[in-house]
Amino acid sequence: MIRVLAFLALLALVALGASWLADRPGEVAVIWQGYRIETSVAVLLAAVLALAFLLVCLWSLLRLVLRLPSVMSFASRARRRNRGYVAVSRGMVAVGAGDPLAARRHASDAERWLGREPLTMLLKAQAAQISGDRTGAEATFTDMLDDAETRVLGLRGLFVEARRKGDAVAARAYVTKAVELAPGVAWASEAMLEFQSAERDWRGALAKLEQRVALRSIDKATAKRQRAVLLTADALDRADKEPEAALAAAQTAVKLAPDLVPASALAGRLLAAGGKLRKAAKVLEANWKIEPHPDIAAAYLDLRHGDSTHDRLARAETLARLKPRHPEATLAVAEAAIAAHEYARAKQALAPLLAERPTVRACLLMADIEEAEHGVSAALRQWLGKAARAPRDATWMADGVSSDHWEPVSPVSGRLDAFQWVAPAEQLAHGRIHNDADAVIADGDERTVFLPSAPDEEPDSKAAPPASSPETAAPGPAPSASPQPADPPPAAVPAPVATASVPSEPLAKPAGPRDAAQSPAPSPGERNGEAFHAVTPDAKATDTQMSDARASDASASDTKPAGARLSGGKAEAPAKRAAGPVVFPVARPPDDPGTEDISRDDPQAGERHPFMSRL
User: Fold this and answer.
1) Distance CA 164, CA 347 (A)
2) Are residues 173 and 228 in the same domain?
3) CATH assignment of the domain containing 326
4) Is residue 41 part of a domain?
5) Consecutive sets of 10 residues in the chain, 615 residues long: mean pLDDT of each?
6) Which of 233, 261, 297, 531 could bridge to 408 as Cys pair (CB 3.0-4.6 Å)?
7) pTM of this prediction?
8) How many structural domains is the chain composed of?
């Protein structure tokens, strides 16, 4: 609109000038070299304008001719630059898609068209990374150090490659240089914090954390949690030599993170050691109300040294009243009751856990009770077998590694505040297999990822039913009643059969180092010929050979096979049964459960669980 108005205004000025000249006619005469030229003012003005326009056109043409080489060079550079950026764009897409061949091709094209520009070098490094060319990637990152614009990027790439190789010294050097060049870079400050934590330089780590907070490279909630973790770690290291300073650090950590179990447990123990029992109990009870934990229970029961086991049981009852239906409260009461020889009270406390799905600790506590009351018995072996298959209790876990004690730093990745109180998974979680296409510049290292293992083969539906387990045996109404499994039925010994020459190899692989226990009695399905099939090919072949040998020898022997029907003094062949492996039952006492419950679902239970040696 403004341009239209300006054009109209200019047109009006031209019309006004023409009108002014028309109202004032005149003549112009030029005498030069004996020539006289006369014309009007309007014609002279038009000639001057035409001459000016002609001069402008000639000057523009001359400039075009003079600048033609540079114009052609600029056009060529523009085409090359356009092709280079197209190659960079396609190369980035190839890197994201995980296509190493296309990424390297486009990186080469981009370097040819653009030269050593930052984007080109970054694409070249990433293409080398996803192709598995670590040497090429390191060389490209090293070249980036020569340019101030890409120096921090090169340090980050070299840091990642050094950490992949496990070169902690080089990684630390790269991080230190990056922090000097760019203190506000998040990855460098975080890596420096992890290095200081791994070296147990808690005060230096706290200073670095405060620097990150000042630079706003970390949110307030995360900074508060990490500050509490670092203070707790510092207090744990100084608890023996400087108990007062350790207590101050632990109390500060409790204020920052009331749910941090190690901080509360340490503060409670240090307060109790200083004679401040009420404050210690208050700190421990506050953390117990948030999330019950065995470390809190142990510190609470040990508040006053020299107390009797019944006093400790009374404290456990206090914790149970704070969290009446929590499993940790139940287990704490049961452990204290066993220590006080109050076995009826321990059984009563464990009854709710046994009614659902008891964990390893609950089963082992029941085994301790049975051993204390009855010594080595069938119920003891049943509870130990149940513990071998029970779900695991919660423990400190960090990056797939379990620990009996809390640690501030993960031993795998060096990550701060990595340990969490969780129950181990019963099977490996679904993960992904690492691929070189994922190995582009990142904050973390390449970590080993596992695939879920195949579930164990389920036993045949016609297998012999297991002996009654503690899970199905409900506790009696009286507290003294022990939830022992029902006694198995006595073994039925079949009629003798003729001996046959069979291979000396065993029928099946032994279940564990404690395989000397008696074999279970055959089920009714086994006595009818529907025996449980062995899971190994060798055992199947051995069973077939034994069946053929017994059939051939039995026909030539005077001994009548079991199950034969007599008709007129002659043995009548039994009805044809389903083919299956032959099982030779061994008689055992009715009160001996054997190893059925232990080895049926976990053939290597005796090898994996050290407490199975108690059988």
Assistant:
1) 52
2) yes
3) 1.25.40
4) no
5) 90 85 79 83 84 93 86 86 93 94 94 91 94 93 93 95 92 94 91 92 94 90 95 95 94 95 96 94 95 95 91 95 93 96 94 92 95 92 94 93 93 91 72 48 43 40 39 38 43 39 39 39 38 39 44 41 37 41 40 42 43 44
6) 233
7) 0.62
8) 3
